[in-house]
Amino acid sequence: MNKRIALTGVSAAVGSLLLIGSAYAGLGDAPGYDAYKSAVKETFAVQNVTKQMKVTVNDNGTKLFDVQSTVKADKAKNEMSAEINLSGGGANQGVSLYRQDGKQIVKASDNNVYNIIEGKEWKEKAGEHRGQAPDGISAEVENVVDALVGNLKDYVTLSPQADGTKNIAMQLNGSQIPAVANAIGSLVVKQAANAEEHRGDMQGPFGDKFQGLHDSMPKLTQDVKIDKFDLAAKVNADNRIEKQQMTLTISGKDAQGVAHEVVVAADFGLSNFNGTTPDHVDLNGKQVKTIDVKKHGE
Q1: Which residues contact 6 (CB under 8 A, 6 or more apart)?
Q2: Using an 8 Å Cβ cutoff, are 232 and 19 in contact?
Q3: Higher pLDDT, 118 or 165
Q4: Bridge partners for 135 per DSSP
Q5: Residue 168: beta bridge partners?
């Protein structure tokens, strides 16, 4: 697979973990913390679920791109299907993803080729998890998170509702954001800015469709810091997170000294808990191409 695509996926994953980790680690020994942590653990324990997500990135008030997706995941069967649409940078690209029968399948909306991702490392990793459904967050991870908690618990609000649902919120600004979170955020942004030189010239299943999207992103290299982080979660009566909104504001300067304020807004929705079945694609009669991960990732 094209390194540009791989790096985009890694950046998205790291960004998501940073957002979630900042929210989770930013809670303390307080009712809001206890309620949110309990809901996170209950949500992670769900065997299958439908996830809807929208992520929008703005730079100095101008929208750069947005990503909208619907994902159906089944941990017990190690299956997943997803429909993703990315727009921005002069490009509009739809992507269909499937994980079924021990294979990972990728298809772009503008062609009829189904790309089967191969590679020993991916197969070994998939095999490790096949048929194993994690019960949730491990005690070790929970202990580490709890150990990082400080006075940020004071910024969490819990609002129980009459119907058994809960609203949980947190707002952090400036000096309220821990130095470690700022350092990690700065490192992630700078690494993303340097990704260009590591792209390589191998062509993946989407060719150069995302070149304009990549080029439109500001490359922050100086004075990078997190200015603001907001979280709002809706917990249903079954103690599962069904809606979550997060906004991350990052500022910095590019190599030319131009100042940027980048706002990343993410809106998540979870539904059909333990009642979701991922979609399958029948490859019989379809155009199929096999892609070696190792070959295209070097």
Answers
A1: 297
A2: no
A3: 165
A4: none
A5: 158, 233
